[in-house]
User: Fold these one by one.
Assistant:
Number 1:
Amino acid sequence: MSDFQDWMGATQARMEKALAEQLPTAHSIPHRLHAAMRYSALGGGKRIRPLLTFAAGELTDAPEERLTVAATAVEMIHVYSLVHDDLPCMDDDVLRRGRPTCHVEFDEATALLVGDALQARAFEILSAPGLAEPARQLEMLHLLAHASGSQGMAGGQAIDLDSVGKTLSQPELELMHALKTGALIRAAVLLGALCGAPLETVARERLDRFAKRAGLLFQVVDDILDCTASTATLGKTAGKDEAADKPTYVSLLGLEAAKRYAETLCGDALDALSGFGARARRLTELADYICHRHF
């Protein structure tokens, strides 16, 4: 476990450095926008998606430099989604990663532009010439774009907003979260593998299955923590989903059944990795970490 913690800490530090280098400086014009971008992206977060990118890269012997670019792009998309998600027109939250949300620290218009600019910057760095052979780089761009759009993260958020006060069936709830949360987690995993040598079809299918189960697992655990962890532990407002009358796995299944379902999803994810052997060590450790964080 200490080895995993060391790897995770080193990767998180690498990502902090990469984000700091890839974001515009706060001294460059427009100052306020760039300061808000750096405020939102730096100095916090577990960097789960970049960790998954680096872990998946071990399956294909991907070079660290390429993984860093892909992971940075994924994290910029994730941060943009958090900034927009916290806006009054969305979830209207005032706390993120233990600090005031972007629109509270700056203002709503700036927060809207922060999300727009982070999204654009993600695709700018992922499309820079020379990252990979053209066909592979185009595949990476397509994967991230699809995961971010109306059939991915944005679409899931739209369903989430439309579902307030409603009771969803488990398949409906899983579809919503496969888009809102799972799509970007899946993209993070597959981008990591795409940074290295090609996988055979069967291996890629197994990795895709892992990524999908890991994405759903993350959301189930998130729903559990929203009910069981404190605001100080989460770094965001605890109990907000219940207060907003949003459908969650806890409201649908009950707390103990949701915990059992998380364990089932973790088992499914680990089973998908069984054919990769020692190369999947970090992905295996991350699945266990996602499943058992704080509960």
Number 2:
Amino acid sequence: MSEQDKPTEAEEIIAESQQIRESQDVPDKIEDTNPDAETEKKTRDVIFVGTKPIMTYVTATLTQLSARPVVTIKARGQRITQAVDVSQMIVKRMNTVGYIIKDVRIASDSLLSQDGKTRNVSTIEIDIAKP
């Protein structure tokens, strides 16, 4: 495989996010009174924040924003601060483009830890949109 054929880090993150999204259960119907919300949710893409450098997630998000109207940055636990940093870098440093934070959702997931106990882990989802 030549250097040009290798995927970039941003492309790897987009592919990983796609695999994670496909492995999760997605409800058959979206409960919402807004008819445009269902269309919007189908066109939304998700970037899952992990252990890679922050600029990698910024690049991945900007790449998705060039093709989609809304991109969601999603993180849980200790990675929440990095997700906030990614969103702020896009909104504040790219102010000539004018991206905005459309919505922020916080929640808590119950996970089974390695020692067999149930733990609550905080999650955040930040929607970035084109103006």
